[in-house]
Write a structure and sequence with these properties.
Elements (H helix, E strand, L loop, with lengths): L1 E8 L4 E8 L6 H11 L19 E4 L2 E4 L5 H4 L4 E3 L1
Parallel strand pairs: 1-5
Antiparallel strand pairs: 1-2, 3-4
Amino acid sequence: MIVKFRIFRAQEGKYEEYEVEAEEDSSVLDCLEKLRLSEVEDLVFNRACHHGVCGACAMRINGVERLACLTKVEEVVEEGTITL
């Protein structure tokens, strides 16, 4: 599925939108890594264990604080969009 990510870019003080192909069981962190490796090289976020143990990937996803590595895209996508 194609998912649009609305990401707040602090340096610019505004949201930017990106689209990524998400697999059925993709986490939000999987999609962010895919975005960074493919088209958004200046995207910066914390990550470490990718197993929900360290808490490094904590972020506000659609206004709720969550771990990006444990949050499945299908759980939080709203009308094709996820806001970070």
